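Preliminary data (for renewal application), 2-acetamido-2-deoxy-beta-D-glucopyranose complex.
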Amino acid sequence: MALLGRVAILSLPSGALSEPKLHRQTRNFRASGLSTRSEQLSDTNAKPQYNPGFLDHLFLNLFRNKMAQEIGWDSKKPGYDGLIEVANRLMIGRSNSETREAAVRILKSLFPPLLLELYQMLIAPIGEGKVAAMMVARVTALSCQWLMGPCTVNSVDLPDGSSCASGVFVERCKYLEESKCVGICMNTCKFPTQTFFKDSMGVPLLMEPNFSNYSCQFKFGVLPPLPDDDSSLQEPCLEICPNASRRRAATSDLEALKCPKA
Ligand SMILES: *[C@@H]1O[C@H](CO)[C@@H](O)[C@H](O)[C@H]1NC(C)=O
Ligand SMILES: *[C@@H]1O[C@H](CO)[C@@H](O)[C@H](O)[C@H]1NC(C)=O
Ligand SMILES: *[C@@H]1O[C@H](CO)[C@@H](O)[C@H](O)[C@H]1NC(C)=O
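Predicted structure:
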């Protein structure tokens, strides 16, 4: 997602501003700080493994602290479990749009404002936005696996009919799976992340979560539909969403099957 980090923003795609020194640094940075994915996935149903490195812990803690600051509350649980509790809290006592606005503020607070302005001003316009879209795809795939699990850069079709390496495919989004609810995914992740990239970095983004297999396709360079028209909102609640199953048990009303928080 948007946890690109100040350092990571420097890791440009090959081709754009390719300076050898920068490249070497990027590789070291990746090898030392970020995690490795284990290749022995014998069982295809097994969750993709991702072993976090120290930079991942750094990102997690930075992100969580910003969330806790916004909410004014922190969980007692350490690590990822605590992060999910804090994310749940973001929904409590807020309307959906308030939750989305709070999440956008959190994402923005992770970056120096000047960097966002410069990116939007200098990089977003290059090559009709394709360079900026490919850059953020790379950086997202590189720096956000601690949050979402293994992901890879792939090609997506842009509205102008061309295809561009500005996609990120998340095999099985850890955040979606652990937060367990369509509403949390939509309001603390999908909508705010789309808004953040568009408004703060000048890069349109469409995120397509699949609630059956927890995959998520990021399409940088593609404008999302208006939130009310987004097909993801038609999805029923996940079986594992605790409030949704409670509601299902309490009522036979079909309306209750629609995810209320989404
Ligand atoms: C789940 O239900 C509890 C009370 O039953 C409520 O306080 C909480 O806000 C609900 N969470 C979500 C995400 O709707
Ligand atoms: C989501 O994934 C399932 C299982 O792979 C697939 O059957 C379904 O068509 C996908 N849904 C969408 C909207 O792509
Ligand atoms: C999950 O669904 C997406 C499409 O929504 C598909 O591209 C992907 O292959 C599916 N993954 C698995 C493991 O079925």
